[in-house]
Structure formats: structure tokens, C-alpha cells
Amino acid sequence: MDDNPKKHEDPPWKVYRNEPSENLEKLEEFLRLKAEPVSIWNEKQAREKYSKTPRSRESGLMGVWNVLMALGVTPKISMHDAEMLCLHREKDNTSYLPQYLFSCSKYGMTTDGILKAVETLSNGRVVGRFFEFYPPRRVDIRYWLAGWMRRGVVPMATLNYQKQVRGVSDEEQAHLPPDWHHHMVYGVNYEGVNITNPISTMKVDHFKTRLESESVILVPRGEVLVRLGESHDLEPIRGTPEWQQMNVVGQIEVIAREEERHKELRIPPGMKYIAIPSCMIGGVTLFALRDTENHRAIVKSEEVFLKL
Q: Residue 67: which H helix or E strand, with range?
């Protein structure tokens, strides 16, 4: 991939302010992206690369593998050995409710884990930086991604699939990840974002909604009820400030009361989930080869401005 900055005069990202030139800038970017979609791979190449990616239950590791392939770096260890690094956390399905919910809160592979995985698997040759997108940022995600990708930078997006989006059928929803998921972005055009794991094109508004997600995970009522016995102790949850702020104990009590009414009076329950804090953060991690112009550009780049 070309890493010569002289051939890439565009700024790596844009923030649109309320200035007279704003509409003209948007029109120029629209026409450019409409005419010239930006991609690291075409779809055929993406499918070939993805077919060669070792499978893992952890989407973060598969995303890391795709990023290294895009940058021309061979992972120094196998996927099995990478999983043994324990850079992701599992749910504790055998514990009582408070401990189970705490494990759900920490479930998955955080951005720190992804950066450590890239550092380890590339033997230090690839570096990255994470950019948060919650609260929502004042930038068009298409142009922001396109600007970086034109330089040869490789993005990985962290999306929350529990965020509700319009226009998704029940059949399509059934094939989507159940909660937080990591995807390498291999292309972007005016209509959508091309991602791996699996290879697909996501509508821009769907991508944006899932990207701009608060750090929350939804736990189905059935997973709560099966662990909610008569002798349950919710004090560990009560004593955690962030969980108090989200009134997690109150949500649990509502589900318990609804279940009693359902058994006694056949009144259908209303709450399908409880919402708890999550260690996951919606955003994009940008990757480049170490000690290159792209590496320096990522390090020096400002954070994307918050939407006012």
C-alpha cells in the first residue's frame, strides 16, 4: 500500500462547522465519493482474504487478522495461540446473578485488548489509535473513513448491534451478531460501508447508529430470571455507582414482579431486557505500519469534535 504523503493532499478527516463553505464542502465530498468509492480491497479480494482468515469466536481477533492482512503483515502466531493470550473475556454462565451480570458487563474484547493483540501478532510492526464516536461526533463518517483510507490507513469499527435501526427484517436480524462486534472496514461509498466478518455492505445510517452507541449491553429477561432465586443477594450491584445510576436493581425488581403477575394473573411481561454498563465503547480504531507518515498522522490527529 502506498504510504507516500505527497500523493495524498486531502485532510484525513473533516469536521463540518456552521460556515458558508459547509454546504459546498459536503457537495464536493458527495460528488467525489459518488464517482470514486474508496476501498482497500474490492469485494472479490475481500472474500478471498476473508476465506483465508482463521475462524475465532472472538470478532476482535478476526478483525485484527484482517487488518494485518490489509497492511501486508503476517501474524507471528496462530489464531489458536492468539486466543490463548486471553485478551477477551467470557461470560461466567455458572455464577449467581450479580457475578453473571458483572461478567456480561466485561464480556468481549475491548479496544485495549485489540491494540495489545495487534502489537503482539505483528511483533510491534503495526500500531493503532482508537477514536470514540459516543457521544455522537460532528463529522460525516463516510468522509472521515474515506479520508483516512485514501492514505492507506486501515480502520476497524466497534459496533453495537443491540441498537435498534429501521428497515431491518426479523430474518435479517436473526443473522446479525447479538451484541457488540468488531469489523475491519475495507471500503466506503456514498451509500454504505463495506466490512469484513462477515463480508457485507452496511447502510450508512445503520453503521452510524451502531457506531454512536453508549457503553451499554442488554441482558435478556430469561437470563436474569433463571439466576434469580429466593436467596439472591443484589448488594454487590447496589454498591456499584455506575450500576446505581442505571438503576439495575430496580430493573431486576420490575422483571421479578412482572414474572409473578404473569404466573398468577397471566399478564404478559413488558420488559424483555435489563440494561447494564458495558466495557465496550463505540468507535473506530485506525491502524498503520509503525514509523510511517500514516503512523505519525494518526498520532497527531485531533479527536473528532462532539456534535453540539
A: helix 59-70
pLDDT in tens, 6-50: 444 444 444 444 444 455 566 566 666 665 789 999 999 999 999
CB neighbourhood size of 243 (10 A): 20
Looking up cell 485484527, which residue turns up?
A: 64
- What residues have CB less than 8 Å from 14, skipping those under 6 apart? 25, 29, 139, 140, 143, 144, 147
- E strand segments, the chain: 38-39, 126-132, 154-160, 180-188, 192-195, 200-203, 216-220, 273-277, 283-289
What DSSP designation does 265 have? H
User: Exposed e or buried b for every residue in 106-141, given b needs 16+ CB within 10 A?
Assistant: bbbbbbebbbebbbbbbeebbbbbbbbbbebbebbb
Checking DSSP bridges between strand 38-39 and strand 283-289, what pairing results, if any? unpaired
Contact 100, 271 (CB under 8 A): no
Which three cell numbers mark 154?
486501515
Cell triple for residue 226? Answer: 433463571
Cα separation of the two ends of the chain:
37
Strands 200-203 and 192-195, bridge-based pairing: antiparallel
Return the closest-CA partner of residue 248 out of 280, 227, 275. Answer: 275
What pLDDT digit, counting tens, does each position of 199-235 carry? 999 999 999 999 999 999 999 999 999 998 755 788 8
CB contact at 8 A, 186 and 39: yes
